[in-house]
Amino acid sequence: MTGRTHDRRTVLTTCAAVAGVALGGTALTACAGGNSREASQSQPSVAKGTELAVLDDIPVGSAVSVTTPDDQEIIVSRRTEDEVVAFHAICTHQGCTVLAEESRLRCPCHNSTFDPFTGDVQGGPAYGPLPRLDVTVDGGRIVTA
Ligand code: FES
After folding, report:
1. What per-residue confidence (pLDDT) applies to 101?
2. What average pLDDT score do residues 13-19 get?
3. How far is CA 117 from the centre of its chain?
4. pLDDT mean over 100-116
5. What's the pTM value of the predicted model, to 2 decimals?
6. Is the CB of 109 inside a 6 Å radius of any atom of ligand 1?
7. Measured from the CB, is residue 22 less than 6 Å from ligand 1?
8. Which residue's CA is the closest to the ligand 1 atom numbered 3?
9. Is 110 in the pocket of ligand 1 (CB under 6 A)?
10. Ligand 1 mean position, distance from CA 129 (Å)
11. What is the edge-to-edge ordering of all strands in the sheet holding 113-114?
């Protein structure tokens, strides 16, 4: 691991959502927020080894929105006990921040929706999947790879 290490308190977990996607269960709450950005901005990067979340804090079938120490919005989804994926929460339509919500990821600006485990568009006007972020589980922590 290179770069900075962070106490889990330095990464703000802003919302837990998408409960029961894999299990067909009931949804939880939605997140607040929705800062706009230009979709044409260059791809953001997160320093390798940045802690995004603690695995046990994300129920299987759920996704959470997190903010990195340098204020990047990331979505971390846990599909199975040991399968975790992450995406930059930047809508591919016009760059608003995508939120983890119920059984999908939703952009609050124009209601594009995305699959929480693949990042693929489920409903437009967004035209492309959410940019994927490589992550790994290290000692129960989900960190960028
Ligand atoms: S910016 Fe996300 S749907 Fe328009």
Report:
1. 85
2. 37
3. 10
4. 92
5. 0.72
6. yes
7. no
8. 110
9. yes
10. 12
11. 99-101, 104-106, 113-114, 121-123
